[in-house]
């Protein structure tokens, strides 16, 4: 017997001992898989949550954090989320039953940035197809990673592209770096100032990011780094990066430098300093640079993983017919072009 519940108020989940424990840092070693992350998205990023939970026998769970209303649900995630996946607990986690139940809640479900190195995309595709949904799957993004495979930081840096190694050799003495493992309000204000003067677009939700950094600092997982011009060490910081470390992985969340400081390459020097910290001190086995295939990430990372978009439609819902018609026409056009 499988029971399916839906929670639009995430505070309800906190009072459910089994569920809250399954979604806590005790059992989930990445921030994107935890209740606290989804609560932050709901509180600071304007997302309307709908947590779908299926409970099977022997405490098996299938949890799908969704958002939205009006029959079209999406992943409870945004630009801060490296990857989105269902949380499956125990043997026989009832994902099939969850997919079937969702037919009464939505005519369409769109999930982006789903990984498949852990089988998540395939599991979702199989479960929703089995439940009668029409499932379209496509690559939507790239995740760049660095498996350390036991290397020291010196060995890792020695294998970087020649141009990057030359930059680090020439610029490291001109940039002073500092790495904090606790949240510091003044340091965070410097990060926000740097970000405002960087090439980056406007921050999507500074309140979310600040709250996340504060919580990670309290848990000992934060690595907040600042760079100064070595010729003016008491002056304003010229580059900043925010990483977190847990479960053997270093996650690179944010990085920025002041455009005026570009000739000093402070971003590269700061990344190298953080790499030395997480590799030689924190002893991580993997560095995750999040989504996006920017050229500079290729200098630091060595492997890439696909992120998938799954679009699930109830095929007999009239509300889906216009979009399915457009998808069909695009497919015909692509076929004609190939022909």
TrEMBL record:
Record Gene3D superfamilies: 3.40.630.30
Domain BioF2-like acetyltransferase: 185-298
InterPro entries: Acyl_CoA_acyltransferase, BioF2-like_GNAT_dom
A Pfam family: Acetyltransf_6
Segments passing through the bilayer: none
SUPFAM superfamilies found in the cross-reference section: Acyl-CoA N-acyltransferases (Nat)
Protein name, per record: BioF2-like acetyltransferase domain-containing protein
Lineage: Bacteria, Pseudomonadati, Pseudomonadota, Alphaproteobacteria, Sphingomonadales
């Amino acid at each position: 017997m499988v029971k399916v519940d839906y929670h639009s108020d995430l505070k309800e989940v906190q009072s459910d001992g089994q569920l809250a424990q399954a979604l806590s840092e005790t059992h989930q070693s990445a921030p994107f898989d935890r209740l606290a992350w989804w609560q932050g998205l709901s509180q600071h990023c304007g997302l309307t949550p709908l947590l779908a939970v299926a409970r099977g026998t022997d405490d098996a769970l299938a949890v799908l954090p969704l958002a939205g209303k009006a029959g079209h649900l999406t992943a409870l995630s945004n630009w801060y989320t490296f990857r989105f996946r269902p949380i499956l607990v125990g043997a026989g986690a009832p994902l099939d039953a969850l997919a079937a139940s969702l037919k009464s809640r939505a005519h369409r479900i769109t999930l982006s940035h789903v990984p498949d190195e852990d089988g998540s995309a395939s599991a979702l595709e199989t479960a929703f197809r089995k439940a009668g949904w029409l499932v379209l799957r496509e690559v939507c993004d790239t995740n760049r990673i660095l498996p350390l495979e036991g290397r020291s930081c010196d060995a890792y840096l020695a294998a970087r592209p020649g141009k990057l190694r030359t930059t680090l050799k020439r610029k490291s003495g001109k940039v002073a770096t500092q790495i904090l493992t606790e949240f510091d309000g003044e340091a965070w204000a410097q990060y926000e100032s740097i970000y405002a003067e960087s090439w980056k677009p406007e921050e999507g939700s500074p309140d979310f990011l600040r709250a996340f950094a504060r919580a990670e600092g309290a848990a000992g997982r934060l690595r907040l780094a600042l760079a100064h011009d070595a010729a003016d060490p008491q002056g304003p910081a010229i580059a900043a990066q925010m990483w977190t470390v847990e479960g053997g992985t270093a996650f690179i969340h944010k990085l920025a430098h002041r455009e005026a400081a570009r000739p000093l390459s402070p971003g590269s020097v700061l990344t190298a300093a953080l790499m030395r910290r997480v590799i030689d001190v924190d002893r991580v086995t993997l560095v995750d640079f999040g989504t996006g295939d920017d050229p500079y990430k290729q200098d630091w990372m060595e492997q890439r993983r696909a992120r998938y978009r799954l679009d699930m439609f109830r095929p007999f819902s009239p509300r889906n017919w216009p979009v399915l018609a457009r998808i069909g026409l695009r497919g015909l056009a692509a076929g004609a072009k190939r022909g």
